[in-house]
TrEMBL record:
Organismal lineage: Bacteria, Pseudomonadati, Pseudomonadota, Betaproteobacteria, Burkholderiales
Protein name: 3-hydroxyacyl-CoA dehydrogenase NAD-binding domain-containing protein
Organism of provenance: Variovorax rhizosphaerae
InterPro entries (alphabetical): 3-OHacyl-CoA_DH_NAD-bd (IPR006176), 3HC_DH_C (IPR006108), 6-PGluconate_DH-like_C_sf (IPR008927), ClpP/crotonase-like_dom_sf (IPR029045), Enoyl-CoA_hydra/iso (IPR001753), NAD(P)-bd_dom_sf (IPR036291)
Reaction equation(s) it catalyzes: a (3S)-3-hydroxyacyl-CoA + NAD(+) = a 3-oxoacyl-CoA + NADH + H(+)
Coiled-coil intervals, chain numbering: none
Associated pathway: Lipid metabolism; fatty acid beta-oxidation
Segments forming domain 3-hydroxyacyl-CoA dehydrogenase NAD binding: 302-477
Pfam family of the protein (one): 3HCDH
SUPFAM superfamilies: 6-phosphogluconate dehydrogenase C-terminal domain-like (SSF48179), ClpP/crotonase (SSF52096), NAD(P)-binding Rossmann-fold domains (SSF51735)
Domain (3-hydroxyacyl-CoA dehydrogenase C-terminal) ranges: 482-574, 610-698
Amino acid sequence: MTAEYKVLGEIAVITMTNPPVNGLGFSTRVGITDGLSKANNDPAVKAIVITGAGKAFSGGADIKEFGTSKALQEPNLLSVILALEASPKPIVAAIHSVVMGGGLELALGCHYRVVAPGTSVALPEVKLGLLPGAGGTQRLPRVLGVETALNMIVSGEPVKSELLASAPGQKLFDKLAASAESLFDEAVEFAKSVAGKSPAELPLVRNLPCKHPQGDAYFQFAKNMVTGMSKNYPAPLKCLEAVRAATTMKFNDGMAEERRLFTQLMLSPESSALRHLFMAERAASKIPDVAEDTPQRAIKSVGVIGAGTMGGGISMNFLNAGIPVKILEMKQEALDRGVATIKKNYEAQVKKGKLKQDKYDQRMALLSTTLSYDDLKDCDLIIEAVFEELGVKEAVFKELDRVAKPGAILASNTSTLDVDKIAAFTKRPQDVVGMHFFSPANVMKLLEVVRGKETAKDVLATVMAIGKKIKKTSVVSGVCDGFIGNRMIEQYSRQAGFLLDEGATPQQVDKAIEKFGFAMGPFRMGDLAGNDIGWAIRKRRATERADMKYSRTADKLCELGRFGQKTGAGWYDYQAGKRDAIPSQVVLDLIEQHRKDEGITPRKISDEEIVQRLVYALVNEGAHILEDGIASKAGDIDMVYLTGYGFPIFRGGPMHYASQAGLYNVAETMRRFAKNPRDDGKFWEPAALIQKLVAEGKSFS
């Protein structure tokens, strides 16, 4: 059992011991109820204290039990809370550090609560597309008032204990301890002070009244607010319904309504997607053949080569984390421009109140610059962010091989190039790794960590850890053209081009996929990134992969110099100083002329076909990536697309979405697309992995 029991004089102490956050797994639940039974059957025990060991009282459900039968195995959390309420002896919760989700619901089932200052208090279930399912929506409004409780439940955000403890009329906490260190002793003393109370005198949260003075009018106002903030996410409105039930129903009826709504959400695709995201994000940090206790190299200083948009953004990540950065450029003017941009970005944050002046000063003090490779000799990690051309990378890495100290990690920010070839430019390929940041690098969460065939395991472990320190979602990719993200997006973009050939317009394609939930359609995305980038890749493909077909519309667009927002014209027209995409007659005429030149009769294309062709193109290529061992698990691919490419979070990523749609249905749709004369048919043959999973009745998850 992951709960300890001991007796201190007349006080029994039950301590949850399930690190890291004392999740309320089956073993912990059994330990609590067993301890409770021992205490109530021991005449010498007059009161009970329940607390958590380590760095949390309890963070709620045990994530290791998500989706398993153990999560509901008796005693489930509802049963544990009922047992606490039914105890004839007073129970005091000694709360510290973190009390969230089921942990807070557990504490609400106790008779009394003593809390340490600085404790984070939350019911974050809404972030998993759920609502608190063990009485949180019924009990929290009774101790904090309807409005405060509803705000906490709908947002899922933590609130500090001292703020809640100071609220007028609150009954959540009976005492705020002087400090975290004195909490346990104060809780024991509090337990002694209530030890003589009879069962009838013990207070239960369930017996407190729950009303809002404005009643229906308040909840209508709240519904309007929540509706406007929760597009595509049903959980916030269900939370509101459950809290409203607390004000209009008897307690047990409200509990039944909470359970009904919880079950609805548990079965919803949105919650499935959010729970998948929660698990996939944690699983992404685990590399199958790299043990979690692999020793890491110390990263106390970072060198960045290139002061442009990428180099500056990359530098800011490390400055934000308190790590000194030295930027190298070939010319002083380029260095000055880069530093000025970093300053401008930070000053904008200061102006908006998002960054304090002293923090800004600290970060800028960590930044230094140089025009000489020799000045990078003491850096522990050096990241190049230079032009995406193999010859340029070769020159950089030969210099790094010359100056970098033994054991320094040499990283490339390449988005498509062969990391093994780059590593071969050095005499230390074991120290070379890809660190592909996404633009703007100081904002985007994704970091593709590209593992070369000789990249050392401790290098991988170190880079994954440093990714976490700079608050990135790091995903490991093997070496191939485009790695995970860009290899897949190429197939997505190819299909977008074919859709234009066949009868769609750029705005129809963009609107269809944006309605599906993407942050931006393929043509708006191209205009933002620069259409010349894709043009350069297609030129390279013409010699490397002559068999790969593309629509010629994108090349013809680039031949007109319409590279996107930076030139004021791309797939759309743009007005100076604005980013609004305006449909372009020039582009529509270009597409129409292209169809005539190719002898294509345009047809009406549905939004459904647009979405399926774009998303399933990602899915099929993602399956090939899994087959090739470029990604180790489908969840990693989903994390890449959720954090780096604007795939809708409420759909859980392309691989999860395909599993939800049913891989049999996906495969049959692909075979239908394979008959399209614009494609050679080879791409739409379902990947062998998809066919295997269909045959076995399985999914990617």
